[in-house]
Design a protein that fits this description.
337 residues; 3-stranded antiparallel sheet
Length: 337
């Protein structure tokens, strides 16, 4: 018996195309899954950058964005953070008295809110610095009348160092020297210290440690605070400054009689910036909140006392130097005993 067998062969190209289609479909599926995962991860990182920017941490926001350079940055965080950094730099320059640098940076920057006001502050600072240089040069030369003329010419100048008082005291002391009366010299010295004060303003950062009550294992809460301190020092009773004697062109003064007083000490703009817990099981109860508030209050009051005490020696040396500078143009040297 004969059988006729017919074999139907599929074209090879059909088989190959089917295999390619399956492979491409698989690759697309893996690629889309990977892209979706990457996009999700990048979006999460981007939100961290947004949070850093909204918290004022501009450098951190830019650093986070640098880890996802291909993100579209739909909220324009990078540009805003860069502007924020520039603005912070301008504020720092102004706060440190570098008005020329601040003005130059403002001229190079694009406009932003408060830029106009900051330009005015910088320009005023530049003018005040120039006026102060003129005053200091006049004082060094013993030209006390010139100091008064400069102050009258620029009435808007804020005389924080009481240059007018120093000039008046210098005129009085020069007169006393000419008359050779030690009593008059002592009186002029008293008047100078009556009108002279030193004001120091600083920006401070400190850490307060609180052990919360009401927990079996409380741990600690570390609170980072920032605040401005303004301390004004002077000699409240300058009549107690004792001029011992005058020998020729040398005046001898008892150094211990220069008693520096804290005329004013204020802590302001006090705020908490960060908080760290050594025990994550400790939570904010009403008692813990009250304890933290009490610790911050005590810390603020302590800073008002301590910062003033720390500046007493600085103020004493400043006042003594001022007196020596006033006497120098008259050819009189001062010896502190």
């Amino acid at each position: 018996m004969n059988y006729n067998l017919t074999v139907h062969k599929l074209p090879i190209y059909r088989i190959t195309r089917s295999i390619y289609a399956i492979a491409i479909t698989a690759l697309l599926t893996l690629s889309l899954t990977g892209c979706s995962a990457n996009n999700s991860e990048h979006n999460e990182i981007y939100q961290n950058a947004v949070a850093a920017f909204e918290g004022g941490n501009f450098a951190e926001a830019i650093a986070v964005l640098n880890t996802i350079p291909n993100h579209n940055d739909n909220q324009n965080i990078r540009q805003q953070a860069e502007k924020g950094l520039l603005r912070y730099e301008v504020e720092t320059l102004i706060r440190n008295g570098r008005y020329e640098s601040a003005a130059n940076l403002l001229r190079a920057m694009p406009d932003f809110p408060d830029a106009g006001e900051m330009r005015i502050v910088a320009e005023v600072g530049i003018q005040n610095a120039r006026v102060e240089r003129e005053i200091v040069n006049a004082l060094s030369a013993g030209n006390y009348e010139g100091v008064l003329d400069i102050l009258d010419l620029y009435p808007e100048f804020i005389d924080n160092q009481d240059y007018r008082g120093q000039a008046l005291a210098g005129i009085g002391m020069r007169t006393a020297s000419e008359e050779g009366e030690l009593e008059t010299l002592s009186q002029m010295l008293t008047e100078m210290f009556q009108i002279t004060s030193l004001e120091v303003e600083t920006r401070n950062r400190d850490v307060i440690t609180v052990v919360p009550g009401g927990f079996l294992n409380p741990g600690t809460i570390s609170i980072v605070v920032e605040f401005d301190s303004v301390v004004r020092l002077g000699v409240e009773n300058p009549e107690t400054i004792e001029i011992l004697r005058r020998v020729g062109d040398t005046v001898y003064i008892r150094e211990a009689s220069v008693q520096i007083d804290i005329l004013e000490s204020v802590v302001r703009n006090y705020r908490e910036t960060e908080r760290f817990r050594s025990n994550l099981m400790v939570w904010d109860t009403a008692e813990v909140t009250a304890q933290i508030f009490e610790a911050q209050q005590e810390h603020s009051e302590r800073m008002e006392r301590e910062l003033g005490e720390q500046l007493k020696d600085v103020a004493r040396r400043s006042f003594m130097n001022s007196f020596e500078a006033l006497m120098m143009p008259m050819g009189i040297s001062v010896v502190w005993e």
